[in-house]
Every structure is written in C-alpha cells, then in structure tokens.
Q: What sequence folds into this?
C-alpha cells in the first residue's frame, strides 16, 4: 500500500487533462531555480512555458513508453521490454532504425502509478479510435500509449518523399484502439485539423505533425512543371491525398 502527498494535491500543480490511463499535469511556477535562473523562469512563466508531466495509472491499462521516459513508479509495477521473441526483437530493431524511434519501448503493467520525465513541450492525448484506428506520427512526437496499440513503420507513398522533401523514408504508425500520448512543440489550441474526403492537401513545409493512416503522403512539385513551380516560388510541397485527417502546426517545426 502506498500514499502520494504533495504531488497532484500541490497548489503549484494543476491537472490539464485525463484520458484513459493518462493524466497530464502542469507546474504553474518553477520554484526549483537559482538566483541566476530566476529571470529566465519569470519570463518562461509569462510566455506559458511550463514544465509538464504525464502520470500513468496502470490499473486502467498497461502502458508502453518511449525509451528513457520513466522518472519514478510506485506500487505493483512490472517493467518489461515488450519483446515477444527473437523475431519480434529484430522486427522492432528494424522499425526503430528506419523511423528514428527507440527500437525497444518499455512496457509497464500492474496496479501502481508510473510518472514520466518532465518536459517543456505540450502534452497531447489522442484516442486512436477517433482516427479510424490508424494514425501516423511525425518524428519525435511519440511519448507513450496504452499497450493495446500496435506500432509499425509506415513507408512514404514514393521515394521522392524522402529524397526531395529532406525527410525520412518511414514514419511511426500507431494502429488499434487505445489512448496515445504525444509531446508537441505546439499546444493543442493552435493545432489546425483538416478533414479530407477523397481530396488533396498540399503543405509548404513540414507543419503536419500527425495524419490518418488511410492517407497517401508524398512530396511533389507545387506546379505541373518545373517552370510553373519556380514561378510560384513554392517548389516542392508535402501532399496528403485521400480520405482522413491531418493535424497542422501553425509554423514549420524547424522554427521552434
């Protein structure tokens, strides 16, 4: 049996959102600062730059996290590699090598509490069922998910998506029913959601952070010809084609 005090009941911590096994909290002020850091902490607070953490209640669901994300855990918690044999290990290692994610993602089960490392990024909770059971993520967004969800490497629709677009050839895809936890440089309030029905979205820059697994993602010329693309001043654009949803940040991730 355990008791946790001065954590979520601390008046300097507020609960942002809860979904499934996950709860996101935010530190209203950063009190653990030295005099030399006080000015930076003050302006961070004024600009809504706050430290945030994710709390996982394992009695609600087993949880899979990004490697190294655990800060502390209490109660009946068992940590495994989530690897189910030699073939599964090599499959996960291959997926990690092509997506840039960690090859092995720890899986936590039991009835205790798991708390993840604090981050200054924004925490987004996604119900994958709302995406028809399939979502594809931009690099670096995955933080944790309920272990009912399956991971796979999703290849671009054509090779030019990687070469011409200066992107990787694969993205991390999440399939199934469950809650997904993301780390985003952009808050949920600023994300633009575009729903396509057998249509096309063209984006100048890597502003898409997540999209439906049903969409084809390519990189194409903005015009029908090289001269037309040059005249428009856009050149190459990211293209999402089909039926599904796309989440867009207001500015390209390279601006953060």
A:
């Amino acid at each position: 049996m355990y008791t946790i005090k001065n954590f979520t009941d601390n008046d300097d911590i507020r609960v942002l959102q809860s979904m499934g096994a996950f709860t996101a909290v935010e530190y209203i002020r950063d009190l653990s600062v030295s005099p030399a850091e006080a000015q930076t902490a003050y302006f961070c607070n004024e600009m809504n730059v706050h430290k945030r953490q994710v709390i996982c209640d394992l009695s609600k669901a087993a949880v899979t996290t990004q490697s190294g994300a655990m800060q502390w855990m209490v109660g009946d918690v068992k940590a495994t590699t989530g690897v189910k044999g030699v073939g599964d290990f090599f499959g996960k290692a291959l997926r990690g090598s092509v997506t840039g994610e960690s090859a092995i993602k720890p899986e936590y089960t039991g009835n205790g509490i798991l708390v993840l490392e604090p981050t200054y990024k924004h925490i987004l909770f996604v119900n994958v069922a709302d995406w028809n059971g399939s979502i594809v993520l931009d690099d670096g967004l995955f933080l944790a998910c309920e272990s009912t969800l399956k991971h796979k490497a999703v290849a671009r629709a054509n090779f030019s998506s990687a070469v011409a677009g200066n992107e990787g050839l694969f993205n991390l895809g999440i399939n199934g029913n469950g809650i997904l936890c993301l780390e985003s440089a952009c808050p949920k309030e600023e994300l633009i959601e575009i729903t396509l029905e057998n249509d096309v979205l063209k984006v100048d820059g890597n502003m898409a952070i997540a999209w439906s697994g049903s969409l084809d993602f390519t990189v194409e010329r903005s015009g029908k010809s090289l001269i037309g693309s040059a005249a428009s001043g856009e050149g190459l654009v990211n293209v999402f084609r089909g039926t599904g949803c796309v989440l867009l940040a207001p500015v390209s991730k390279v601006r953060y």
Observations:
- DSSP finds four helices and 18 strands in the chain.
- The longest strand covers residues 236-248.
- The radius of gyration is 20 Å.
